[in-house]
Specification:
Elements lengths: L1 H18 L18 E6 L4 H16 L5 E6 L4 H6 L7 E5 L5 E6 L4 H10 L6
Parallel strand pairs: 1-2
Antiparallel strand pairs: 1-3, 3-4
């Protein structure tokens, strides 16, 4: 029963975050791309599933150095960006093209081969 109450509280918290007005407009700027494609990794700091997701993304990034960037965003530090991208589940990966436009999204943990295939499909990496 305790886990059920915790789930309800988490849903209420996410609902509140979803509809709250947030900080002033100046704080709502999107993360700026650094000239190349980027993965925004939306996480919670103490989430073990998020840590697993991070390990996969960084392993692929290490295999393809300099081909794409990764930016980690934590709900307790970047709630405005979470709302802007309408992220409700962590981990979530948002793929941005070099112009900073969202071109794909994934919720959960990727397997390395599936992430590599997605990055090839989006032309984020080349062999």
């Amino acid at each position: 029963m305790h886990a059920g109450r915790l789930s309800v509280l988490m849903l209420l918290l996410w609902g509140w975050l979803w509809v709250s007005p947030g900080p002033p407009v100046l704080a709502q700027a999107a993360p700026a791309p650094a000239g190349g494609p980027k993965i925004l990794e939306f996480d919670r700091k103490l989430c073990p599933i998020c840590k697993a997701s991070e390990r996969v993304i960084l392993a692929v990034k290490d295999r393809y150095p300099g081909q794409f960037e990764v930016e980690k965003l934590y709900i307790d530090e970047a709630d405005v960006v979470f709302r802007r991208y309408k992220v409700a589940i962590v981990p979530t990966q948002v793929f941005l093209n070099p112009a900073g436009q969202e071109v794909a999204r994934h919720e959960g943990v990727y397997k390395e081969e599936a992430l590599t295939q997605k990055l090839r499909e989006l032309k984020f990496i080349r062999d």
